[in-house]
């Protein structure tokens, strides 16, 4: 990062303009912070030492670059943190969760991939800054590099990290994405919120289907359904499969019960609206997709991350937890000879669950 903005720039005024431009570009909020993440670095190292990251080895890679922004992008002085709401209108989340025949997909993944949407807006924001301040050094990030985005957003005053380890905002809940612009601009920084407004509430901890929270602000990702259905590439531990229910890509339970999400507002971004009826599809319908159908329906979608085999694995677990019907059994039998050991293992497990339900043994 070598470009330097003109010294005559009024950075106080520029910071105010940046926040206005961010909202004009579709972000619901923006804040500015510095690069000291020493407190969060200590937490990260402790969390990694406990092995809570599971197979997500990338979280331990890159040395201290994740918690030291100026090591990731030399020359970084200040960071612009933004948030964008993603929750569609009424997606009947609770209703779908209570229907064992339907597939529950985390609400963030129902529409197009947020990485591209937000990155393009950040590029436009950088262009607006350039028009006023001249060429400057920056890099944009959207959950795609060693960046402690929640820590940066908290320090920038966009909310506080709650007991469920998500960023919470008193006016918007937690249904939003985050993005960052690392810059070499000496912008005035915003004050973080002094208080974490979770109080004595622990609804998020109590609701977790797999008991992934080992305590407030402490998540063992190895038990988290989002990790199990997205990040884990091998077999899902058998003891956890019944607890996953019909959640086939991610989990929103700790957000659905959070009292602060009563303030969440529906997204205005059409790119985040549900596609291909993914907010209300039956498990059997999705399980019978060919790989070509999967690739077509998930083009430009975060769901691609799990891959076709991971998709079938997750759906097999969902079908194993579903009510026993001829349609469910037929769907599972159609895949019991699938040419992949992992998929077959989960299909056979699902069929065994139905056998036990119907025979009692």
Automatic annotation (TrEMBL):
- Record-listed tRNA binding positions: 233, 309
Q: Where does [4Fe-4S] cluster 1 bind?
A: 198, 201, 204, 258
The similarity annotation says: Belongs to the QueG family.
Q: Where is the active site?
A: 143 (proton donor)
4Fe-4S ferredoxin-type domain residues are 185-218
Enzyme group, top EC level?
oxidoreductase
**Might you give the EC number(s) for this enzyme?**
1.17.99.6
The organism of origin for this protein: Zooshikella ganghwensis
Per the annotation, how and in what number is the cofactor bound? Answer: Binds 2 [4Fe-4S] clusters per monomer.
Query: Which annotated residues bind [4Fe-4S] cluster 2?
Result: 208, 224, 251, 254
Residues at which cob(II)alamin binds: 66, 143, 164, 167, 178, 226, 251-252
Question: From the UniProt record, which GO molecular function terms apply?
Answer: 4 iron, 4 sulfur cluster binding; cobalamin binding; epoxyqueuosine reductase activity; metal ion binding
| Self-association state and partner proteins as the record states | Monomer.
Could you tell me which InterPro entries the record lists for this protein?
A: 4Fe4S_Fe-S-bd, 4Fe4S_Fe_S_CS, QueG, QueG_DUF1730
Q: Where in the cell is it found?
A: Cytoplasm
**Which Pfam families does the record match to this protein?**
Fer4_16 (PF13484), QueG_DUF1730 (PF08331)
Q: In which pathway does it act?
A: tRNA modification; tRNA-queuosine biosynthesis
Its protein name is: Epoxyqueuosine reductase
Entry's transmembrane regions: none
